[in-house]
Design a protein that fits this description.
The chain has 403 residues and is of the alpha/beta class. It folds into two domains: 100 residues, Urease, subunit C, domain 1 (Roll), CATH 2.30.40; 257 residues, TIM Barrel, CATH 3.20.20. Helix content is 33%, strand content 25%. It contains 13 helices and 16 strands. It has an eight-stranded parallel sheet with strand order 6-7-8-9-10-11-12-13. Strands 3-2-1-4 form a four-stranded mixed sheet, with no helix packed on it. The protein is globular and about 65 Å long. The protein starts with 5 loop residues before the first strand and ends with a strand.
């Protein structure tokens, strides 16, 4: 293990909020000297004259960004530009199209996944929760290729992996493959997809997924696009099962959950209270229009909300940029968050909840002993970084300079 101490000077950190008549009007910052060792922060001290070390030149340090819902294994990024097709709009249509596309995509997936990770890194992302396809067409090859890429990038990027039955558990013969994937140490979550509309039952696919997760000590992350009664039934059923199995509390996520965008407020509040009680999180790519998610209600009731890019130029969507600061900025626009305090809180959409200042303005990051994962940005504070989607000038992952 490398015990070399690295020193960073002239690092700008947030130190507190400026207030006027009890209202936050700005953010105070100061210059600091930071030591790193073995990929961790060793010390954080107010800046003193220093002759050695890396000069941050007063750039603002923020926690590195974390994409909590993406698909690193099957983007078209790196191939010639191609927008999504006007046809193939149902999930089953897309499954049929994927069955034709996947063999060809697997031939270049290692190279393309590496390029996609580099795109994410250029936007300050050093960590992702990535779903990877598990279905009869590709078997375990999507996972095998992705693991090759992650091994190549291990000093600059980290990921937790979700075995995702993109073509259904029973709609295609995917159950044996899911059992095989669940037994692997490289897989942290068991995924799922629209149990009723794809596999014809809410209970049967969820029961299989839940038991598989329990048997192997994994978490759960279910894609739920359904917006009808089956969407509500799926959420309620999953909540009941998590409450019955405390080992799944804090380890269960529902991705998308579009049904929450179309329900009456009272029903969203009912579900939000239950989700919070079961410690089930919601992962979102912040869709807008008819599918705009009621995130303020979820936050109000204590539901953990994760954000991610999801699709980045693939056959499902053309619009992904790779930027999580964009997602935070989008949330500000969608939910009317414009004040200094509100904008500073929305940085959590990019950092998966890690903020330099707590809600009262006390410094809480970085701390000695925490992983040295951060970005330097051309911004005066978190609020400005969100409002202006400030350029990321440097990314450090576990003490390693990425760029």
């Amino acid at each position: 293990m490398d015990h070399t101490v690295q020193v960073l000077n002239n690092v700008r950190l947030e130190t507190g909020f400026e207030t006027e008549n009890g209202i936050v009007t700005g953010t105070r910052t100061g210059l600091f000297s930071i030591e790193m060792e073995n990929g961790l922060f060793r010390s954080v001290k107010e800046q003193v004259p220093a002759k050695e070390g890396i000069d941050a030149k007063g750039l603002l340090m923020l926690p590195a960004f974390r994409d909590m819902h993406t698909h690193l294994d099957k983007s078209l990024y790196g191939l010639p530009w191609k927008a999504v097709s006007a046809g193939n709009r149902t999930v089953k249509d897309m499954i049929a199209m994927e069955q034709q596309m996947i063999p060809g995509l697997l031939e270049t997936s290692v190279q393309r996944s590496a390029q996609l990770i580099e795109l994410l890194q250029s936007h300050g992302i050093s960590y992702a929760r990535s779903h990877f396809n598990i279905e009869p067409t590709s078997g375990l090859r999507s996972l095998e290729n992705l693991l090759r890429v992650l091994e190549q990038k291990k000093d600059s990027f980290a990921a937790e992996l979700v075995a995702f039955p993109q073509h259904g558990l029973f709609y295609t013969d995917t159950v044996p493959l899911m059992r095989e994937a669940a037994a692997l140490d490289t897989v942290q979550y068991i995924g799922g997809l629209d149990p009723y509309s794809i596999d014809g039952s809410v209970e049967k696919p969820l029961d299989f997924t839940i038991q598989l997760a329990l048997d192997h000590g994994k978490g759960i992350d279910i894609h739920l696009h359904e917006t009808g009664a089956s969407g509500v039934q799926t959420i309620d059923y999953l909540i009941e099962k998590v409450l019955e199995n405390p080992a799944l509390r804090g380890k269960t996520c529902i991705s998308h959950a579009y049904v929450l965008a179309v329900l009456p407020v009272q029903e969203v509040e009912r579900l939000a209270e239950r989700l919070a009680a079961a410690e089930i999180s919601i992962a979102t790519a912040l869709p807008y229009g008819a599918a705009t998610m009621p995130l303020p209600l979820l936050w109000q009731h204590g539901v953990s909300v994760l954000s991610g890019n999801d699709n980045i130029q693939d056959h499902w969507s053309t619009l992904g940029s790779g930027s999580l600061l964009y997602k935070a900025n989008l949330a500000a626009g969608l939910y009317g968050r414009e004040t200094e305090w509100e904008l500073s809180r929305l940085l959590k959409m990019a950092t998966n909840g890690i903020l330099p200042l707590d809600d009262e303005g006390r410094m809480q990051w970085p701390k000695a002993g925490a992983p040295a994962r951060f970005v330097w940005t051309e911004a005066s504070c978190s609020a400005e970084a969100v409002a202006r989607m400030s350029p990321v000038r440097s990314l450090v992952h576990d003490g390693h300079l990425v760029f």
